[in-house]
Amino acid sequence: MEENLDILIVGGGAAGFFAAIRAAECNPDARICILERGKETLNKVRISGGGRCNVTHACWTPRELSKHYPRGERELLGPFNRFACGDTVAWFDERGVPTKIEDDGRMFPTTDDSKTIVDCLLGQAEQLGIDVRTRERMEGMEPPERDNAPWIVRTSRHTYRPRRLMLATGSSAATWKLLADLGLDIIEPVPSLFTFNIKDDRIKDLPGLSVPLAEVKVEKSNLKSTGPLLITHWGLSGPAILKLSAWGARELAEKNYDCFVRVNWVMEKQEEVRAQLESWMREDGKKQVHSHPRFGLPGRLWKSFATAAHIPEERRWQDLGKKHLAKLTEELCAGRYPVTGKSTFKEEFVTAGGVDLKEMDLKQFASKKYPTLFMAGEILNIDAITGGFNFQAAWTGGYIAGEAMARVTEAVNP
């Protein structure tokens, strides 16, 4: 069965729904359909932020916002000047979904429930007459044979003939292959936003412990990052690691996730830490080192560092030797840890890679080679650090693509 459409959107995620809604708002007469291969739409929205949905980030300046994107920083500046975080907040607020800002800048619905965002998007789509179909996978697509001719999209159920086609399929190897077959350049995808697998006695029995600010550096590399650091059952996580994995996605992949990192747990220079330790030797000489944590570190973590510095458990500050001081300083400021692999950060899998941005006109989020083909979201070589920034790229791309599709659809269907 063949079906003619004005706009077909493949992928029922954040970018796809936002594009469909904006297109319908701009052109109420357009026939718009969203196809989703799974049984439910908006799955990443549902699971984001531990089920609370990290909608966006309290970053109000386009130039500052763009700095959070390892891939896409320069290219997204223009789009963010058209639709950015403040616009996202206003969009949801106008539709009855107020948001709140947390201490780290992340923004969530005030309900702390991702269902609020999902219901808003589904409700808007239904109200605007957008046809949403699930369990339908795209199996092939053919570009228009001439100007103003439709695309041909084949799925497991139908053949569609849309005048405008949008792909918002996320990290889909099958879609990338179809696009490569059409002559588009695809940057090989590699994982981003992952945690480090580290087996080390110093942190082995300390899952759940964290420090509010640490620096992590990859040896034999310029990669480094700062932020909260969390010890897990499998190694290290937290914003410091996630930012590092985003900015270093390709370099770490080339290393096969086999490297050493140096951790400064106290965010101070070694000479300053050494001087502070020496002052405690003079001032608190009779106190036992293991029993009196310093630098605001959790007690068990401090004790682990003292043990790693070969300081006997009963040893007092006044009895520490130079070797003990040197080793403890190193553990605090430049502890060396072996990375032997990676683990996905919760269910929020993100990739670095996808359609090369040189292929795209980001004034419309349209393909330069096929002007009636639109793309947004993770299908493109755009990704960000954690904190709501990946969703913001999806909202921005979807909004701009939706406007563009509505405009050109009106042009061919006056």
Helix and strand topology:
Blueprint: E1 2-10, H1 14-26, E2 32-35, H2 43-51, E3 56-57, H3 62-66, H4 77-82, H5 85-94, E4 99-101, E5 106-109, H6 114-127, E6 131-133, E7 138-142, E8 152-155, E9 159-167, H7 173-181, E10 186-192, E11 194-197, E12 210-218, E13 224-231, E14 235-237, H8 239-247, H9 249-254, E15 259-264, H10 270-283, H11 299-308, H12 322-334, E16 335-339, E17 341-344, E18 350-355, E19 360-361, E20 366-367, E21 373-375, H13 389-412
Parallel strand pairs: 1-2, 1-9, 2-6, 9-21
Antiparallel strand pairs: 3-5, 4-5, 7-8, 8-9, 10-18, 11-14, 11-17, 12-13, 12-15, 13-14, 15-16, 19-20
Tell me about this structure:
With 414 residues, this protein is of the alpha+beta class. The protein folds into 2 domains: 2-191 and 349-412, 3-Layer(bba) Sandwich (FAD/NAD(P)-binding domain); 194-344, no CATH class. The protein is 34% helix and 25% strand. It is built from 13 helices and 21 strands. Strands 1, 2, 6, 7, 8, 9 and 21 form a 7-stranded mixed beta sheet that branches. A 7-stranded antiparallel beta sheet has the order 16-15-12-13-14-11-17. A hairpin with a 3-residue loop joins β8 and β9 (159-167). α1 (14-26) packs parallel to α6 (114-127) and α2 runs antiparallel to α6 (114-127). The radius of gyration is 25 Å and the shape is elongated. The two termini are 27 Å apart. The relative contact order is 0.19.
